[in-house]
Amino acid sequence: MREFPGNSTITEPKLLFSAQNPGAVSIHPLEGLLSFGPFSQNLGGHEFLETIRIVAIYPEGYYSIIKNLVTELNSSQQPVERKNYLKSYPGFKSVFKKSLELLDEQSCVSLPVDLIKSSHLPHVQLSEAIVKAIRQINKIVIEFDVLYIYLPELWNSGFQNAEEGFDLHDYLKAVTASFRIPTQIIRESSAIKYKCRCSVAWRLSIATYVKSGGIPWRLSTYDEETAVIGLSYALKVDATTDKPQYLTCCSQVFDSDGTGLEFIAYQADEYTTQGENPFLSRYEMRRVMQRSLQLYLNRHPGRTLKRIIIHKTTPFKADEIEGCFDAFPNTQVELLQVKQSTPWKAIKFDYPKRVSNFPVNRGTFLQIASNEILLWTQGLMQLDNRSYYKEAKGIPSPLHIVQFAGSDSWYEHCNIILGLTKMNWNHDAIYDRLPVTLGYATTLASTLKSLPKFGNRPYEFKFFM
Question: Which residues does UniProt call coiled coil (predicted)?
Answer without folding.
Answer: none
